[in-house]
Amino acid sequence: MRYQLLGRSGLRVSEVCLGTMTFGTDWGWGADKHQSFKIFETFGSAGGNFIDTANRYTEGSSEKYVGEFIENDRDHWVLATKFTLKDRNGDLNYAGNHRKNMMRSVTSSLKRLNTDYIDLLWVHMWDNTTPVEEVMRGLDDLVTRGIVHYIGISDTPAWIVSQANTIADFRGWNAFAAIQFEYSLLQRTPERDLIPMAKALDLAVTPWGAIGGGALTGKYLRGESGRVPHDSTRRNEHSSIIAQTVVDIAEELAVTPAQIAINWTRNRDQVMIPIIGASKEKQLEDSLGCLDFKIPDEMLQRLNEVSKIELGFPHEFLKSAGVKEEAFGGFYEKLDNHRG
Asked: What is the CATH number of the domain that holds 45?
């Protein structure tokens, strides 16, 4: 295990993060307490120190389990949790990004986690109703009080994240150090704006869904069932072609498809810390194997080609030959551009 700085911060975190949405069986699937501890122990033994949970995961069981597991060496662990999602049905103020829910949710998480502080607090997703200034000032208050050490944001448009950090920097508030979103060979749309923005603002990326809900392990190619609907983008003809390529390359390298899929997400010129989850110890052991090898360039190219997407406007427009001719006076190819 190696370690990385969490984006623009000085926080040192393991190169993969343990996702704990599977800790607890309250949703009818996942790992019981005993199995959850074995998963946690395996991650720690491998050198992992970065753990991700949320107030909503398994109705609070995930936070309770994690809090108990890290209790004996709390300061060693980099503990991340989230707020935004509901803790109660039928009450608007028990969900959302606004200050009232933020403070209520964090207080409840601290109790479940049995800790005095949260290392990294994520905004779980943007609610499109709370002003960005209210969110950033509320988060800054939590950091100033020492209840939260760093802040991050998940599942939010790039322009909002950019606006939020610009406002925070201008006003001297704490800004986001990391961003979280779905990213995999089946979901490459973050390459349009989210990933370039993260690099420009020096935000660590902690992608979730690296194995595409299991689709990239090849299980649907083998006819196995799962919780993903048959009409999902993870179970169509195009996704099957991508999954088959992953399986083929895994066989050539004598590794597993899951290891290929997770490894691929790390192959960018910026901080990428994939979140890996498991409901069984062996699943986590397999995922950790993604750290043990490098995908050859030729195979990376095959994976990139089979899963490529159209970046859309204005990206495709700006890289067209005609625009380059007009913007660089015919000398585009002669310009050494260190920015990209």
From this structure: 3.20.20.100
Residues 260/250, Cβ–Cβ less than 8 Å: yes
pLDDT tens for 135-190 read 999 999 999 999 999 999 999 999 999 999 999 999 999 999 999 999 999 999 99
Torsion of CA 7, 206, 30, 93, to 10 degrees: 70
Catalytic entry in 57, 65, 150, 220: 57
Q: Are residues 173 and 28 in the same domain?
A: yes
- Torsion sign across C-alpha atoms 191, 197, 198, 202: positive
pLDDT at residue 229, rounded to an integer: 54
For 339, the domain range is 311-340
State yes or no: is 183 an active-site residue: no
This prediction has a pTM of: 0.94
Same domain, yes or no: 17 and 135: yes
CA–CA distance, 292 with 161 (Å, rounded to integer): 33
- Residue 74, C-beta contacts closer than 8 angstroms, at least 6 positions apart: 115
Long-range contacts of 41-47 (CB under 8 A, 24+ apart): 42/281, 42/284, 42/285, 42/288, 43/18, 43/284, 43/288, 46/1, 46/288, 47/1, 47/14
